[in-house]
């Protein structure tokens, strides 16, 4: 009996989920099986998430995007969160991460895995405090593992676990004097727990026990980057790279146990360092799918960080990142509302699409070519059909409609339209401007 997609692939068996993904991606089933067997593609698909529409993440596949949602102490509105979920699914997000830190988190989590066809991810360390009703220092290693087990039983497809931060990291952070220390929420909680208790990181110390939990339910482990840079000054420093080396070792151990793995990548990285970061992860982690937050290419754009991050995401995807975690305009400022979620998703759908074109993914440029054809003949309805957001494209044009006698153009150029002039010139027609 195969517990995981990885175990099945290693034994030469093509699962139903692999068949679905292969059809979506337009690649041979056997080729996909080989990539899954090598750990270069994962199909996060918990056996208990029965309504999931499987997606693959990794080499030779379309770049996928993740949407972070969830409640906080200041904003606990499950209806609002489900509205964001519905927006995300409608706009084409392949994954939802529930990062709730307040309220009865299990209600929302089980609603997601019971109704949502997208992949569902969580960060169990957040929920450990809430579920066990203990403050951080009072939690035990078994409490942390129990929370992972609970999330697996609830149908979560992947869990972010900051397994690479150890007591050695405490010394490194104190010694190297980062400009912004640790900005990973999960990483900071584990750093604090280790500092207060004097114990080793339970996610690292009991990694084999975690693998057994994840294997039983086919939960993919997303190896969290606790030491990801939170500002440009900390990018690609010794703390980040040392943790990445350890994540590479843990990736190998997980694969040997039949557990699927993705590796999380940096947050704030200068544009000129992104390619090196992607190549380093690929080398150290055995080409495991790389899941990046942005990366953000400047630190000074609060309110516009969806743009900052989408620029980095497109470059990261071009150089090998398989999974982009969206960033919204509210990043660094507040819990995102529904409009923030939409803005973040659209920015990252564009970034992922741009990366797929650059990588030569089969069919990635088809819509772009169709758009060019529609623009050539000034076919506005076909242009809307090709657009990534047809409703917005139509509403902008309709709100600033051109004069009736040159309605085939737009209100920017009118009869000065280059496409109109060229079409008439090439057809030997008179070109009227005035």
UniProtKB/TrEMBL annotation:
Binding site for [4Fe-4S] cluster: 410, 413, 417
GO cellular component: cytosol
Keyword Cytoplasm tagged: no
Positions annotated to bind Zn(2+): 268, 332
GO molecular function, one term: 4 iron, 4 sulfur cluster binding
Superkingdom field: Bacteria
Catalytic activity entry: 5-amino-1-(5-phospho-beta-D-ribosyl)imidazole + S-adenosyl-L-methionine = 4-amino-2-methyl-5-(phosphooxymethyl)pyrimidine + CO + 5'-deoxyadenosine + formate + L-methionine + 3 H(+)
Pathway annotation: Cofactor biosynthesis; thiamine diphosphate biosynthesis
Matching InterPro entries: ThiC, ThiC/Bza_core_dom, ThiC/BzaA/B
Enzyme category, top tier: lyase
EC number: 4.1.99.17
GO biological process: thiamine biosynthetic process; thiamine diphosphate biosynthetic process
UniProt keyword annotations, A-Z: 4Fe-4S, Iron, Iron-sulfur, Lyase, Metal-binding, S-adenosyl-L-methionine, Thiamine biosynthesis, Zinc
Cofactor annotation comment: Binds 1 [4Fe-4S] cluster per subunit. The cluster is coordinated with 3 cysteines and an exchangeable S-adenosyl-L-methionine.
Binding site for substrate: 68, 97, 126, 162, 184-186, 225-228, 264, 291
Pfam families: ThiC_Rad_SAM
CC cofactor: [4Fe-4S] cluster
Gene3D superfamilies, A to Z: 6.10.250.620, Radical SAM ThiC family, central domain
NCBIfam families: PRK13352.1, thiC
Family of this protein: Belongs to the ThiC family.
Functional note: Catalyzes the synthesis of the hydroxymethylpyrimidine phosphate (HMP-P) moiety of thiamine from aminoimidazole ribotide (AIR) in a radical S-adenosyl-L-methionine (SAM)-dependent reaction.
Protein name in UniProt: Phosphomethylpyrimidine synthase
């Amino acid at each position: 009996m195969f517990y995981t997609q990885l175990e099945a692939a290693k034994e030469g068996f093509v699962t139903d989920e692999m068949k679905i993904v292969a059809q979506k991606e337009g690649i041979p089933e056997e080729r996909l099986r080989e990539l899954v067997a090598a750990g270069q593609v994962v199909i996060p698909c918990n056996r208990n998430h029965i309504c999931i529409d499987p997606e693959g993440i990794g080499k030779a596949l379309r770049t996928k995007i993740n949407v972070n949602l969830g409640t906080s102490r200041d904003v606990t509105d499950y209806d609002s969160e489900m509205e964001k979920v519905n927006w995300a699914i409608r706009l084409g997000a392949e994954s939802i991460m529930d990062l709730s830190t307040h309220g009865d988190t299990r209600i929302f989590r089980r609603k997601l895995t019971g109704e949502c066809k997208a992949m569902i991810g969580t960060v169990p360390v957040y929920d450990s405090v809430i579920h066990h009703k203990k403050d951080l220092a009072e939690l035990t290693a078994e409490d942390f593992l129990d929370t992972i087990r609970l999330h697996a039983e609830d149908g979560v497809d992947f869990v972010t676990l900051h397994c690479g931060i150890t007591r050695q990291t405490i010394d490194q952070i104190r010694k190297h004097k980062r400009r912004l220390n640790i900005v990973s929420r999960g990483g900071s909680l584990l750093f604090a727990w280790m500092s207060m208790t004097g114990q080793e990181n339970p996610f690292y110390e009991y990694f084999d026990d975690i693998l057994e939990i994840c294997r039983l339910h086919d939960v993919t482990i997303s190896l969290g980057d606790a030491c990801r840079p939170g500002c440009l000054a900390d990018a690609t420093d010794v703390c980040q790279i040392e943790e990445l080396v350890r994540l590479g070792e843990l990736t190998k151990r997980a694969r040997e146990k039949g557990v699927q793995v993705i590796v999380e990548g940096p947050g704030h990285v200068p544009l000129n360092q992104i390619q090196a970061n992607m190549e380093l992860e690929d080398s150290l982690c055995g080409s495991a799918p790389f899941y990046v937050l942005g990366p953000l290419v400047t630190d000074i754009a609060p309110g516009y960080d969806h743009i900052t991050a989408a620029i980095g995401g497109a470059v990261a995807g071009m150089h090998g990142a398989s999974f982009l975690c969206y960033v919204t305009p509210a990043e660094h400022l507040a819990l995102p509302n529904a409009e923030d979620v939409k803005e973040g998703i659209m920015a990252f759908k564009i970034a992922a699409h741009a990366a797929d074109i650059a990588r030569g993914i089969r069919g990635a440029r088809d819509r772009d070519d169709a758009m060019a054809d529609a623009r050539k003949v000034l076919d506005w309805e076909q242009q809307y059909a090709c657009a990534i957001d047809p409703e917005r494209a139509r509403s902008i044009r309709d709100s600033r409609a051109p004069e009736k006698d040159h309605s085939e153009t737009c209100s920017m150029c009118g009869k000065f339209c280059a496409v109109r002039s060229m079409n008439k010139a090439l057809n030997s027609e008179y070109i009227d401007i005035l």
